[in-house]
Amino acid sequence: MAEPFEPKIVAFLCNWCTYTGADLAGTSRLQYPPNIRVIRLMCSGALDPIYVVKALLEGADGVLIGGCHPGDCHYQSGNYKARRRVAILKAILEEMGLDPDRVWLRWISASEGKLFADTVTEMVEALRAKGPNPAREAWGV
Amino acid sequence: MAATGWLTTTDGDLTSALVQALRALLEAGLVDALLVPQATPAGDNVVPTLVARPDRLERVAPLAPAFPVNGATVAARLTKTLPEGRVGVFLRPCEIRGLVELAKLKQVQMERLFVIGTDCLGAYPVTTYAALAAQGDPMAPLLQAAAEARMAPAPGTAFREACRICEQPVPGRYALEGTRTPYQPDLAFGLFGAPLPDRVLVEAREARVLEVLGAEPGGPPPEREAAIARLVQERTAARDAAFAALRARLDGLEGLLEVFSTCIRCHNCMVNCPICYCPECIFRTATFDHLSTQYLDWARRKGAIRMPTDTLLFHLTRLNHMATSCVGCGMCTEACPSGIAVGTVFRAVGQRVQALFAYLPGRSLEEEVPLATFREDELTALGEGYLG
């Protein structure tokens, strides 16, 4: 029998806010689904869209990008730049006939461990409803 | 434009009149050298040529419908480290837009350039031009139609696709209005609506340039606006039809794979793109020289993988990096050995992402490229979760 579909999420989290928020979720013993693989970045503004595209083409079911709330960036404006890049990326995915809703950008601060756990839970549910990323088994990507 | 006037040709020889105007710029010292389209000795191609001596302007073919290289890239190379002086560059409207983008990306020193534009007649693919040139001057039949702002490729041939869908064929005029000062070339030749080949309109940013050219004073002909409007309308309709046909194909991953199915990964589209200036492009580094075991791991996981890998990654990444600045010159399509309409893909996607920021590439030196700036009060819904 085939195993039930478990979405795989690649998460790019900024060191100062969302990664620390994820840490808080852990130290607070908050439960959230184990479907994410976290990659720590110094800033959401350090995320080149190529990493997100690569993850999606390799078959990741979703990509979560976590950064500091607007105005709270450790480097002043990295998250504003990330926001533009993600807006462009999602528009490109949609224009190319791919699903932009597999990419989530969320502002989660170091004190929002609960929001982090809730966001991952919500994203896993949303991706479960979507089903597997068609690129997972696609030959030509 | 600050000043307009007219140049009168001798015996209806428009090319000679334009060459004489270029020579006047050089002789008056307004420019130290000229980058102008010049026929190759074989006569089957017209290429950007840097001319420093007025007596070497003989083979200049300013209006030839050939377009082998985007001159913006060449102009960038000419000025990036130029400490003084000015180079005159004769460019098509899309090349000027590319120049403006490169200036904002700090690859061009605009103050080292004297930019000369012309109404664009459209251009043939390089091989079509070469074939037509063997039978006679490919430019001559286009001129009469140009006066009415009609595009008239030779029977049985077609202009480049990018030209057929270009709605910005007049230098200094942009398809959308912005809030900043639009870029105007230093000098522009107006063909549309002019009584060609007897007289050609000249527009200059400074009146003294018209004096150097010996232009007679006079305003644009009354037919000009209507002729341009009709051409722009035709091109816009062709553009929208091309975009609609493409979007119908781009339906899910399968459609995307089909569009790029014949890609041979030569990267010609990137090499010929005026916007892709990065000296250290990630696709030219060792990043994609994976370990041998990596390929086998991928193949095991997916069952089978296309080799070489990362074809879609290349195109999607390039879209992310430069679609906001795509000026629609179509060099990518022309450079593709597999005939993929790369330029139409990039223009269609470009239109969408440029609209996010009300940005039009090449329109103004004062508008920052979207990826280099941000506004605090934009895109505010993005990043906010559905949860409290």
Write a compact overview of the structure shown.
Chain A is of the alpha/beta class and 141 residues long. Chain A has helices at residues 18-27, 49-57, 78-95, 113-130; strands at 9-14, 36-41, 62-67, 103-107.
Beta-strand level of the residues of chain A, as a percent range?
15-25%
Number of strands of chain A: 4
Mean pLDDT of chain A: 96
CA-atom Rg of chain A in angstroms: 15 Å
- Biggest sheet of chain B, strands in spatial order? 3-2-4-5-6-7-1-8
Number of strands of chain B: 8
Examine the secondary-structure arrangement and name the CATH architecture of chain A. 3-Layer(aba) Sandwich
Structural category of chain B is: alpha/beta
Based on the model shown, name its key terms.
heterodimer; A: 141 residues; alpha/beta; Rossmann fold; four-stranded parallel beta sheet; globular; B: 388 residues; 2 domains; 14 helices
What does this structure look like?
The complex is a heterodimer of chains A (141) and B (388). Chain A is built from 4 helices and 4 strands, in the order βαβαβαβα. Helix content of chain A is 39%, strand content 16%. In chain A, helix 1 (18-27) packs across helix 4 (113-130). Chain A has a single domain (9-129), classed as Rossmann fold. Chain A has helices at residues 18-27, 49-57, 78-95, 113-130; strands spanning 9-14, 36-41, 62-67, 103-107. Chain B has 14 helices and 8 strands. The longest helix of chain B has 27 residues, at 223-249. Chain B is globular and about 75 Å long. The termini of chain B are far apart. The model of chain B has no long low-confidence stretch (mean pLDDT 95). Chains A and B meet through helix 2, helix 3, strand 4 and helix 4 of A and helix 9, helix 11, helix 12 and helix 14 of B.
